[in-house]
Design a protein that fits this description.
Number of helices: 4
Radius of gyration: 19 Å
Order of helices and strands: HEEEEEEEEEEHHEEHE
Largest sheet: 12 strands, antiparallel, barrel
Shape: globular
Number of strands: 13
Strand order of the largest sheet: 1-2-3-4-5-6-7-8-10-11-12-13
Distance between the termini: 32 Å
Structural class: mainly beta
Number of domains: 1
CATH class: Mainly Beta
Helix content: 10-25%
């Protein structure tokens, strides 16, 4: 459902690689590919490119699909504000379900986001709040996660557990069915309320050389509540896989 989770997990790997090197704030640029299934009925699994940019000068940062500035940033804590591309979308013609083909499109949007993170001896914690900037979905999204890195020579493995909360406007935009859509499609009218989405993720990065790295990982969302119950949905577990190569400058 969210390719951005998989893409953004590369950030954690790059940050860990950064902490293990004497170079100050290197830049990572890479590319890869990903695969994801969809919760929507009649949707095929999709393949997509995975661009990777990680730039951080301790004041301004670019992290793949997000960019922003730090309000404060010290050795183990940071608070930032920025923007993130939210690639959730629904295209009726991509579904082979005749009823879903008669629904309206749901578009990607841009989130204004504030994020706090802290690194401890027991792992890394982060939380964020984001709001739709483009008036597409009027989404408000809240995220909290916890990750613990493991170093095995040139290999970094980062398992993560987390949970997302989406407001009713977000869920109703992407998973609700209006009265007009109901009349056209034959699906029942459906208003989706807010819900939680727990997830697990594991990312990995392997240093081939001082500059060249392989990365990859898996992200699994568990849909709950009104999202899982939507007439548009027939899968409550959404899985994404990705892998690629990056270069450290």
């Amino acid at each position: 459902m969210k390719k951005s989770h998989c893409i953004l997990s590369i950030l954690a790997l790059s940050a860990l690689a950064l902490s293990e090197t004497a170079l100050a704030d290197p830049t990572f640029i890479g590319v890869g590919g990903g695969w994801s299934n969809s919760p929507y009925k009649g949707y095929r699994s999709s393949y997509y490119p995975v661009p990777h940019i990680d730039y951080d000068n301790n004041t301004f940062f670019i992290d793949d699909l997000s960019a922003g500035v730090y309000i404060f940033n010290n050795d183990n804590q940071s608070l930032s504000i920025g923007a993130r591309y939210l690639d959730n979308e629904f295209k009726p013609h991509d579904s082979n379900n005749r009823q879903l083909k008669r629904l309206d499109s749901r578009h990607a949007t841009l989130l204004a986001e504030i994020e706090y993170s802290i690194d401890t001896n027991w792992g890394s914690f982060s939380s964020s709040i984001g709001a739709d900037m483009l008036n597409k979905s009027n989404s408000i999204l809240v995220n909290a996660d916890y990750s613990v890195p493991f170093m095995l020579g040139n290999l970094i493995i980062v398992p993560t557990i987390g949970i997302n909360w989406a407001n009713n406007k977000h869920n109703n935009y992407y998973y609700g069915i209006s009265h007009k859509e109901s009349s056209r499609s034959g699906l029942r009218y459906y208003h989706a309320n807010g819900s939680f989405t727990p997830y697990i993720e594991i990312g990995a990065q392997y240093a081939l050389t001082d500059h060249l790295n392989l990365f990859g990982g898996m992200h699994v969302d568990k849909l709950t509540g009104d999202v899982a119950d939507s007439p548009m949905v027939n899968k409550s577990t959404v899985t994404s896989l990705y892998m690629g190569v990056s270069y450290k400058f």
